[in-house]
Amino acid sequence: MNTDARNRLAAQAAAAGYPPDLLALIVHATLPGYRPGERLVDQQIEQVADAMQVLAQAGYRAGTLADHIADYRRRHREEWRRRFWERALRIACIRYSRPDTNGISPCDTGADRFAQHAGSQAAPASTARAT
Length: 131
Known about the structure:
- The chain is mainly α.
- It has one domain.
- It has seven helices and no strands.
- Helix 1 (3-16) packs parallel to helix 3.
- The longest helix has 18 residues, at 80-97.
- The protein is globular.
- Mean pLDDT is 82; it is low at 119-131.
């Protein structure tokens, strides 16, 4: 058991403002074969941590993420995961490339990136709304 992976996941969840109860939904969206109650192995934890970083960068807030996922499940049925992640990744890429207007992701902890954009007047990514 790699505690580094678990610590990274916990730190990213806290930085993004995602409470522990939302983690189960993120795990379900990230790992199609996961069964609730199963213990995640390190590789799965790393996948969930990466997914959480994408969601935070895309601007999905804790209070609306469940509604976004439910909407994708309702509208796209079997295709919901693929469509949801395509959209989340596209938004995250756009937001990441424009920290001057979107702010830096709450999961972005790179000192170089903070220094590069220290003078930015943009709102933090956690306050911007994903579309």
